[in-house]
Amino acid sequence: MYHIRIISYIFKISFIYETPLSKLCHVGVLGVSRSDTNHSYRSHLSSTLRSMALFLILKVSHSRGLRPLFLTVSFVSMDEPIQEAGDDAEGTVITQVVPPYYLTELNTVALYRREFAKYFPSSKPSFVSLEGFVDAMVLVNGLKKAGRELTREGLIEGIESMQDVDLGLGPQLRLHYSPKDHKGFDHVIPTVIRGGRAVPFTDWSTAAPK
Question: Collapsing DSSP states into helix, strand and coil, what is residue 197?
């Protein structure tokens, strides 16, 4: 059993996006700060609070006649709020760092769906669990590159050596790390809520409030 402390080396999936829309409201909500004790519970609570806050913002804003373009990031688990908000969720933009979990023509999404159905048959697939699946793929690749004599430095170097890697998520999501770049991806997938689910789009004018 190896315990490797890599907190100071954070590898993340980041994104870059631009929009010409003037009616853009970026929803930012507070969560629960991290604690070393009971971290999984606190992380779940933090996500739940963010989701509840967004749900309330949508409801209250629309009840007062305010209909800007609401935008949030994929760190907010949206499946339940979308269902709870109903029509109020329509048109909300969510930036994703993985493709929609229903696009099984993509190899990794298809693999995720097969494994998810096998090990979690009573659960529903989601963007959040697909992100976790991709994170696990990156970690496993890094461990393989680090070799059998695992060290902290070896794992870091293994992940940093992953450059222009096709993870089976489509041509725009190729993984790239280096000693000076820990973002992973330089692309985001904007999605908009239509008919109760997040649908990818490329033309921002189609997401403008009606």
Answer: strand
| Residue 39: count of CB within 10 angstroms of its CB | 10
- According to DSSP, the residues that pair with 24 across neighbouring strands are 69
Q: How far is CA 167 from CA 6, 20, 21, 116, 155, in A?
A: 23, 31, 32, 18, 19
pLDDT on residue 162: 93
d(CA 1, CA 37): 21
Ranges of each domain in the chain: 9-97+188-203, 101-179
Q: How many CA atoms lie within 13 A of 44 on its CB side?
A: 4
| Whether this model's pTM surpasses 0.85 | no
pLDDT beyond 90 at 52: no
CB 72 within 8 A of CB 85: no
At 79-103, the pLDDT tens digits run 776 777 788 888 889 899 999 999 9
Burial of 64 (0-12, 13-18, 19+ CB in 10 A): exposed
**Tokens representing residue 194 in the block:** 């239509």
CATH class of 101-179: alpha beta
Q: Provide the residue count of the chain.
A: 210
